[in-house]
Design goal:
Strands 1-2 form a two-stranded antiparallel ribbon. By secondary structure, it is mainly alpha-helical. The longest helix is centred in the C-terminal third of the chain and has 15 residues. Helices cover about 55% and strands about 5% of the residues.
Length: about 100
């Protein structure tokens, strides 16, 4: 799925734009920005399937996914202290997503 196939209104939506920012810019999450996990027409994400796929991932990759899901819907919890697992580049990516969602 390319950014060209993402409806413009989703890129402007504060919940979607932070989530999509992480999925578009995070190397691991990019691979999962597919119709298997996202239905952009219906505006849904198969969060349980993503979490199942993420089971063997590193802690930093799981944090990126959890943050993306939390930005989309606060029922998905994230522990901000897990940002300690991130390198500087991914911390900046996470902070950018937080800004997109909350500012």
């Amino acid at each position: 799925m390319s950014t060209q196939t993402i409806p413009g209104h989703l890129l402007k939506d504060r919940y979607w734009r932070a989530t999509l920012h992480l999925f578009i810019n995070h190397p691991k999450l990019q691979r999962y920005l597919t119709s298997q996990f996202f239905d952009l027409e219906k505006g849904t994400i198969r969060a349980a399937a993503l979490k199942k796929a993420a089971a063997p991932w590193s802690e930093s990759e799981k944090f990126a996914l959890n943050l993306a899901l939390h930005c989309f819907n606060e029922s998905h919890k994230v522990n901000l202290s897990d940002m300690d697992y991130l390198d500087l580049q991914n911390k900046q990516l996470a902070l950018d997503a937080i800004k997109l969602r909350f500012f």
